[in-house]
Structure formats: C-alpha cells, structure tokens
Write a structure and sequence with these properties.
Layout lengths: L3 E5 L12 H20 L3 E5 L13 E2 L11 E2 L2 H13 L6 E4 L1 H15 L14 H14 L9 H10 L2 H20 L1 E2 L3 E2 L5 H19 L1
Parallel strand pairs: 1-2, 2-5, 3-4
Antiparallel strand pairs: 6-7
Length: 219
C-alpha cells in the first residue's frame, strides 16, 4: 500500500462546460470519495489543484456560455473560471492527513509573466495538456509545497539543463514504463475495457533502470 498519494484533481470534472451547481456538486462528491479512499488505505493525500485551461491558443475551438453544446474541442471560453472555482473548493479543505498545493495559481502567475515577455506564450498548446514548460511549473510548485527548494532559473534554461542531465532519460523511461504497465493493470475504459494480469515484467525492467539511476546519482 502507498504511504503518500498524489492527485491532480479537477481539470475534466467540469467537462468543459460553463459553471453549474450539479457539476460542482459532483466534483465535490468525487473529491470527498478520493479523500475517503486514500484515508481508508492509511495513506496521506497530496492534492494538486487543477492546471489552467488556456483559451488563447484554442480560441477558434471555444464557444460562449449560451452555445448549444460543450466538450473537449468545443470548450466553454471561460472554462478556466470553472477551474478557479474548483481550486478554491480544494484550498478550503481542512484535514490532518491532507496537503493541498495550488498548481492553478502558480501556472496562472507564471503564464502572465511569460506573456509579458512573449504574448504568444502558452503552457497548454491544446488548451488543456501542459507542455514541458507547464510540467516544469507544476513540478516546481509541487516541490515547493513539499518543503523543497526548486531552482528559480528561467524555465527555458532549466529545461535545457534537465535535457542534458544523464539522469533525465533514465527517470523518464522508468516513469513511462511503469505508467504504461500499471494503467491497464489497474484497468480502465475508453469504449472497450482494458485490463492486464501482471506488471511483473515492467517492474523488473524498472528496477534495472533504478539501479542505473542510483549509480549516477551517487557520483
């Protein structure tokens, strides 16, 4: 069983619609279910507020609040306001076994600073999924929220430094390997259901990568 569970909760819960009481209630109910499940397992929950929705790069695919329909690729233009509402709800939670880290605010502030220098800058070219710079903002925010001191260098310079680090491809490959193995092992549905029986082979390969990572980190 895990000791700590990290969850970034909220991006899809408004299903790209305008704000509505029933969707907010469903979001809050799901949030409480997540907290209860993690607590029942004896773990601590580190909850990240949702990343931003960036309407600027997908303006042609956004629609107003009175549109006939909404969804991925037909986004409510003000959907980031829905995520800001969900962020506020998460930040209002109080529990001794819960830490809430505000990714939404950090990304909002970082994007504003980036656009002051380059008006076309974006952390989410498709409006939803963070690019490498967006992920770096999230990682720094998470590290800071856990009491670490991430470097405050320019995002582009830091991404270049990370890409040149020999640890990076090993850590990336280990994460990808385990993610691709565990997702079907846990089971998920995208139309058809996907379920695998074992992650043993992936865990053996991941352990070998971990040995290489530890060897480099020790030098």
């Amino acid at each position: 069983m895990p000791l700590v569970v990290l969850a970034c909760f909220g991006m899809n819960d408004g299903i790209y619609h305008p704000p509505a009481p029933e969707r907010r209630a469903a979001f809050l109910a799901g949030l409480q279910q997540l907290i209860a499940r993690v607590r029942a397992g004896g773990a601590r929950l580190v909850l990240l507020t949702p990343p931003i929705f960036d309407a600027q790069p997908v303006r042609a695919r956004t629609v107003p609040a009175d549109a006939a329909g909404f969804g991925y690729g037909r986004f409510f233009a003000g959907y980031d306001n829905v995520l800001a509402e969900y962020t506020a709800a998460e930040l209002a939670l109080q529990a001794p076994d819960l830490t809430v880290i505000d990714v939404h605010r950090a990304m909002t502030e970082a994007l504003a600073a980036a656009r002051a220098r380059e008006p076309g800058a974006s952390f989410s070219p498709d409006g939803v999924h963070p690019n490498e710079a967006g992920h770096l903002v999230i990682a720094r925010t998470l590290a800071g929220g856990l009491g670490l001191a991430p470097p405050g260098t320019d995002l582009a310079a830091e991404l270049k430094r990370i890409a040149a680090d020999p640890l990076f491809p090993l850590v990336r490959d280990r994460r990808s390997l385990r993610s691709e193995a565990w997702l079907p092992f846990v089971g998920y549905t995208r139309g058809p259901a996907f379920k695998s029986d074992s992650v043993q082979a992936a865990e053996i390969a991941a352990a070998r990568l971990e040995e290489q990572i530890e060897a480099i980190a020790a030098n």
